[in-house]
Design brief:
This protein is of the alpha+beta class. The chain is 15% helix and 34% strand.
């Protein structure tokens, strides 16, 4: 997609510090006690080195505005709907309160595709998160931009069907109902002002969702939390996840995993069995 190639290779560096208050708020949001060794559970890197655009620089969807200036890290793709589509993550070192954090980010690719819902633009961003001089997390994040929902299109995801999720065959299973309060806390922890997570009239009227959307990384965080409750904290070396269908606040969500040697299959499913997220990990 030649019109966005000038953004490929664009870099950004951010700094942060893990303080005790942030660590306590993360653990409280997940109903977790502090790990015995003091290290933060995996997924904590998502609340570090956050975008800090001023209010005047937010777009109609709540995300920071994108333009064609040298200061705009992400390309000004004109498509109005944005989602975190997937990530591939390597965990190299543990993060601890008191660590000074540096994140180096690079736009790796910009690709246009035509999907069943219209034009799609994928932006892949590589992140390296360092604690001091030590590489802690390496991640490639894929962001997808989409056309507006056609007028009169049915809301997504479809209403719950008559089926029920069956946990048979899975080694670990946790059922929960993501509440509006959980979405609010996760948005606060990650400084995410995307309106689909807290503004129901916007989510339904402007972006065509059936209700408030559970953050993709929140679902991935809950899957990592399930893995850590099952295997122990910071035992995974890799995680890859892909959003399949939106999860909606106030509706039952099933988190599952099963192990095959050093490989782990994880998934998130709605109450009627609709798959929300697929994931794989390595111990």
């Amino acid at each position: 997609m030649s019109e966005w190639q000038a953004w490929v290779g664009r870099r950004q560096t951010q700094t942060d510090r893990i303080d005790d208050g942030l660590a306590a708020r993360w653990l409280a949001t997940l109903d977790r006690a502090a790990p015995a060794d003091g290290a933060m559970p995996q997924a904590f890197h998502w609340c570090l080195c956050l975008p800090d655009a001023p209010m005047a620089r937010l777009g109609p969807d709540g995300h920071p505005l994108r333009d064609d200036s040298p200061a705009s890290f992400l390309p000004p793709v004109p498509l109005p709907r944005r989602m975190w589509a997937s990530s591939k993550i390597e965990f190299h070192a543990r993060l601890r309160p008191g660590d000074s954090i540096t994140r180096h980010s690079r736009v790796a690719s910009v690709t246009e595709k035509q999907g069943g819902s219209g034009r799609l633009v994928f932006v892949d961003v590589e992140h390296e998160t360092l604690a001091g001089e030590i590489l802690a997390v390496r991640e490639t994040q894929s962001i997808v931009y989409r056309d507006a929902a056609p007028a009169g299109a049915p809301a997504v995801p479809p209403p719950p069907g008559s089926g029920r999720f069956d946990s048979a065959g899975w080694e670990a299973h946790r059922a929960l109902t993501p509440s509006e309060a959980l979405l609010f806390r996760y948005s606060a922890l990650t400084f995410n002002s995307h309106r689909i997570h807290y503004d129901a009239p916007y989510a339904q009227g402007e972006e065509g969702y059936r209700g408030l959307v559970v953050h993709g990384p929140l679902t991935a965080t809950l899957l990592l939390d399930l893995a850590q409750r099952h295997f122990g904290d910071n035992t995974l070396t890799r995680l890859a996840f892909r959003g399949v269908s939106p999860a909606i606040a106030g509706e039952e969500l099933h988190l599952v995993l099963r192990e095959a040697g050093e490989a782990v299959e994880l998934g998130a499913f709605a109450g009627d069995g609709r798959q929300v997220m697929s994931a794989s990990a390595t111990l």
